[in-house]
Amino acid sequence: MKMTLIAGSNRADAASTILLRYIESLLKARQITVSFVDLREQQLPLFSPDNWDFHPNAQRMIQQVAEADGLILATPEYHGSISGVLKNALDYLSPERVSGKPVLSVSAAGGPVGVSSLSHLQTIVRNLHGVNCSEWISVGYGSNAFGPDGAPLDAGLKERVGGAVENFLDLTRMLTARGVAAN
């Protein structure tokens, strides 16, 4: 199984990226191949439908998505929605790259939860013909929720993240077995 994780923040030490790195460690511990796209490091030019000669970073991200069996998208919640940097990255994707792939949505908010960003993210996934996981992960109060190793400090949150990842992996196995997701 191969997963592509996209960290949708351009902030150093973003809570959403820390959480995604923790999820990456859970996947790697299960011997799952992970491709990690950090949009802070792999910056993309502003998408324009007038220019289909994409920047190498955009081409690399598109290829990583195309090769994945499943996607995990992480975003901070900004003004009740996803980050501009993640929206820009998703604009580069076409339904043919995402169609039928399971997607787990993850957010981090400065307040208690980031539900609005997750709802918006799932709408975008549906429009790309991806299959939203029945669970999502939202972490509140930013980076105060994580220890120095990136693991959630709260045992309940740690359990919830593990359960959501397991649910996502079950969905990925099911779709891959049916030949829906990429091989």
Automatic annotation (TrEMBL):
Coiled coil: none annotated. Pfam families: FMN_red (PF03358). One of its GO terms (molecular function) is FMN binding. GO terms for cellular component: cytosol. Signal peptide: none annotated. Residues 1-140 form the NADPH-dependent FMN reductase-like domain. Belongs to the azoreductase type 2 family. This is NAD(P)H-dependent oxidoreductase. It comes from Cohnella nanjingensis. The lineage of its organism: Bacteria, Bacillati, Bacillota, Bacilli, Bacillales.
